[in-house]
Write a sequence for this structure.
């Protein structure tokens, strides 16, 4: 039996990826994806970039530091994470050009539910990134 | 020199966490967080839950399967990820009750920029989750 009101979160406020070289990662996310750094954490722990105009933040963390805990509960993972960024259908060609300009290879293009293809590529740490339209999900 | 138009993603469409037991994870995200499953992937690869009313999806992946690649570019990580979910200030007490009802301990409460505290807790795989108001970030 649930006593508390029927609440649920209004969105994902923070999405995390782990990187080994924060400067290199920030250069990539700022220059290739056009995201804006809004915060950097002490001691090279990580940085925050804003994604879009809604309240959504991508956190780039150095796992070697976040794993030690301290003020924040420990977290940190080894391997390649996955994040998809939302684009509009008419922007697809511009994104192909952008990736090409920065010599970022498109690893794969996959079509979901008859939508424009989702573009898969890697950040400098090998995290699997995707550019996708929202309509690939039955929301 | 950047030739392509000044575009950037409109938001994070997919945020990923890795879990070892998909059924257990889904029970947690549905019952404790009140999120709705919108898709399940073949062969126990993972599932998708919708977060909020905007286009935002949390993907729960079994890394043992995603690491093998196949149709999708490989990804998968070992360790504890971090995701923050957006709540409204007036919902904080209801969330404390909800977590208590489900015997989910609050690991820490941290105050950022004078806002209501962010609540930190763990999912059954030890991923570090947070419930936070948007105003903790200078967006």
């Amino acid at each position: 039996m649930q006593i508390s009101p029927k609440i649920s979160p209004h969105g994902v406020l923070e999405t995390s990826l782990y990187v080994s070289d924060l400067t290199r990662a920030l250069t990539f996310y700022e220059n290739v994806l056009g995201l804006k750094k809004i915060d950097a954490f002490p001691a090279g722990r990580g940085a925050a970039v804003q994604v879009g105009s809604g309240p959504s933040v991508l956190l780039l963390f150095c796992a070697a530091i976040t794993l030690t805990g301290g003020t924040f509960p420990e977290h940190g993972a080894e391997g390649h994470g996955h994040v998809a960024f939302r684009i509009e259908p008419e922007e697809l060609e511009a994104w192909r050009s952008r990736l090409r300009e920065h010599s970022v290879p498109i690893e794969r293009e996959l079509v979901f539910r008859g939508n424009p293809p989702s573009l898969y590529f890697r950040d400098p740490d090998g995290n699997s990134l995707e550019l996708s339209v929202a309509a690939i999900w039955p929301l």
Observations:
- The first strand of chain A starts at residue 11 and ends at 18.
- Strands of chain A lie at 11-18, 36-40, 46-50, 57-61, 76-80, 82-86, 108-110, 118-122, 128-132.
- Residues 14-136 of chain A form a domain with the 2,3-Dihydroxybiphenyl 1,2-Dioxygenase; domain 1 fold (CATH 3.10.180.10).
